[in-house]
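Async update (no meeting this week)

Hi team, since we skipped the sync, here's where things stand on the single-chain job. The sequence we agreed to prioritize is pasted below, unchanged from the tracker. I ran it this morning and attached the output directly underneath so nobody has to dig for it. Comments welcome in thread, and please keep replies under the output.
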Amino acid sequence: MKTWQNKSGQSFNLQLTVPGYDAVKRELKADLLNPQDIAALTDDQMKTLRAIYILSTPVSMGIETAKPSFDQFAAGFDGDTLAAASNAFVGELLDFLPSRLSDPLRRLISHYEGIQTELQAHVDKLIGQALAAPPEV
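Output:
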């Protein structure tokens, strides 16, 4: 089980179990054991958000509480919140998948994170250079 918070600080537990797998498959027509369906789901932010909604339960003081409507749930997101919830979803998915599927995905994610880190360092350098350059007149 993974935990994440929305932009208001409300905590949610995200857990992928067999009933959750079935709910995602039924409601989103996405088989979480099919690599093509996983790719399609994670490429579409709204589908990812709906999968997160299906698998998440709000928590207050360590006790699970009533689930909000999807619209109420979605209103609690901004960019950072979506990133945190997506990371929780991917982590839970990797824990759920059989190793024949999760091991290659873990390697791919690790490679992607390395590229993302290098890209961010390059962008930061370019921004620093642009800010240090005298303004053109």
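Quick observations from my side:
Strands lie at 2-5, 11-14, 56-60, 63-64.
The chain has six helices and four strands.
Reply here if anything looks off.
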